[in-house]
Amino acid sequence: MPYVRVALPVPIPQVFDYIAEDAGETDIGRCVRVPFGRGEKSGLIVALSAAAEVDAARLKPVLHIQREVPPLPQDWLGLVDFVARYYHAPLGEVVALALPPGLRRADGVSGEDEDPLLVVSDAGWSALQAVRRDSKALTLLRELAATGAPMRRSVVRELPQGAAVGDALRRGWLAPAPAAGGRERMAAAPALTAEQSAVIGEVSAAPPGFRAWLLQGVTGSGKTEVYLRLAQQVLAGGGQVLMLVPEIALTPQLERRVAQRFPAANVVSLHSALAAGARSRGFVQALTGHADIVLGTRLAVFAPLPRLGLILVDEEHDASYKQQEGVRYSARDVAVWRARQHGVSVVLGSATPSLESWHHARGGRYAPLALNQRAVASAMPAVRCIDTRRLRLDEGLSPALQAAVAARLERGEQSLVFLNRRGYAPVLSCPSCGWISRCPHCSANLVVHLADRRLRCHHCGCDGPIPHACPSCGDQDIRPFGRGTQRIEARLAELFPRARVLRVDRDAARTRAQWESLLATIADGGADILVGTQMMAKGHDFPQLTLVGVIGADASLHAADFRAPERLFQQLMQVGGRAGRGVLPGEVLIQTEYPAHPLYQHLARHDFDAFARMALQERRAAGFPPFTHQAMLRADAPALDDAVEFLRHARRLAEERAPAGLRLYDPVPMRLTRLARRERAQLLVEADHRGPLQTFLADWVALLYRQRTARELRWQIDVDPLDV
Ligand SMILES: Nc1ncnc2c1ncn2[C@@H]1O[C@H](COP(=O)(O)OP(=O)(O)OP(=O)(O)O)[C@@H](O)[C@H]1O
Ligand SMILES: [Zn+2]
């Protein structure tokens, strides 16, 4: 009797055997529903098992095998297996993460192409020839006929008379294109700059096979254009392209841009905000090879791609590539592994690479590529510090910054005031008794949100109304302390009553639709002054934006995390890079009490390399990554003692088997100790080399799974943690 081995999403590092009467080799890689405990679960068949290995009397039969779509191929199973081993996570949990929920539930899934490639049909040509009254559908038809090549329905829709596509289809004037050839055909594209040509030439000239490139291109240098041209070459060779972006917020514009550039290609996007059906469909199209370009956030790194020819990772330094819960994988690192597995190139692009990648590029592991000039603008923005030590600030705004904003208003240009803190004020407090608004569930303050009159915790999300009097002493004079984006927005509106002030943060852009409408408003010149958080820092290109004012950056200068300076530098260089990207020159003003700080000095000179050298020297001296390799064991429980006790026990187990050179630190409470009513502690493990660390972790984590733990205790292992 055939047995199958199933990976199930349970926090146990094992796979489970089931009976499947009719299962064979071709079922490996298929989704399956099985009975589990008192209920049922869905998972993936990862192997067939021989009768000798199983105790058949205790096995149950599978409920349903999903056979409507092809099984996941061997290389994909290799991918999830690698992730499970490297991040020391149960295989079933990795599979659950990698598969779209609809597919994993072994539901019926359609991989049908909802965005067919259309051509002018014979009836369409006759209609064009016949003399008849002009209609929108006819105008559209004429445009398509002039283009002379098939186009995706979604791209047709974007044409001037695109709304008539349904009408044209009903009349039979448009028909699905017979065989989709020429997917690499590009719509009008700008002539490349000399630097872009050189970069593309270098990548194309490389011998086939795996290679990791680090494309370090200053902000506005046209990295996207490089990605598109490289993608074209791969499409022309019949390959598939995987393109990763850090945030869902960045996908709509890019999706449109990619689809318009390659009107005949099937561009599929994959991210967590998609409806289940759409995500499954995109995934299946990737799997069947019908997708030419898969564009998505970190989870798209798991898209099966039988013809994979190139991986692009945009803004490779971005922390959102690393999943911060469950299986803590880094999509960037997994992308590099996949490229190696498939023997293809991966291009990691950024104006501000992660220090790890920058280090690899210096050391020869990655091949460096550079774009040092902006594509359109003639210069980088002028960056200047405003020394605020002896200034009177008006709600945090210096006279110089106000004057600069006023000058932009005068000229009809846009300004951005950047402050990475949402809400009105970070805390509400009572001056007479010292009460402050603490979150009851976290070791954090409740943030004042004046827009909807709530006190809200940014960590656990709990909220309540703003009290009218101090809950502790009854004093009515309670006040918001400090500043967030809402407060700056309010003050700017008072200072510049005729300006249109627009706040762009996660509160203003809760949904994708809100976010898109904000972006459209900015692009159409419907806003004069923007107040934004890091949401505004990434990837955007607004030619009218010429001033970026940075406030409140000093707070990160002295943060405890060893990665804080790197993050601050990246953030400031990125947000500053939004200024002066078009023909108008840009200016960046940074309010600081430390104008002589080397970080700001390097920033003013746009010298990422000098900053990176300095920061890496510090890391080398302190023994931090990339000069060492780390893993973090974290535990949380309702009582801190339980969490710490578990880590102490784990440390003792580790001591007995630690190889020479492995460093075990003491368990300590995490910086944000209490989160959503759970107390958290962590234990850092470090080694000079990855190999011994990995060997040790495999052994140790297996042992940890076998420990009996205090009730309600949870633990996780985080390999290459970002927050230490
Ligand atoms: N060869 C070119 N000719 C004309 N315009 C170009 C060319 N290449 C890029 N551009 C334009 O330059 C601007 C900046 O390009 P892009 O947004 O790709 O920069 P980037 O390198 O990704 O910058 P950032 O890192 O700041 O996001 C865009 O408006 C883009 O359309
Ligand atoms: Zn909270």
UniProtKB/TrEMBL annotation:
Its cofactor is Zn(2+). Zn(2+) 2 binds at residues 439, 442, 457, 460. Pfam families: DEAD (PF00270), PriA_3primeBD (PF17764), PriA_C (PF18074), Zn_ribbon_PriA (PF18319). It comes from the Bacteria. It comes from Thauera sinica. Its EC number is 5.6.2.4. This is Replication restart protein PriA. Binds 2 zinc ions per subunit. One of its GO terms (molecular function) is hydrolase activity. It catalyses: Couples ATP hydrolysis with the unwinding of duplex DNA by translocating in the 3'-5' direction; ATP + H2O = ADP + phosphate + H(+). Residues 204-371 form the Helicase ATP-binding domain. Belongs to the helicase family. PriA subfamily. Component of the replication restart primosome. Initiates the restart of stalled replication forks, which reloads the replicative helicase on sites other than the origin of replication. Recognizes and binds to abandoned replication forks and remodels them to uncover a helicase loading site. Promotes assembly of the primosome at these replication forks. Keywords: ATP-binding, DNA replication, DNA-binding, Helicase, Hydrolase, Isomerase, Metal-binding, Nucleotide-binding, Primosome, Zinc. Zn(2+) 1 binds at residues 430, 433, 470, 473. NCBIfam families: priA, PRK05580.1-4.
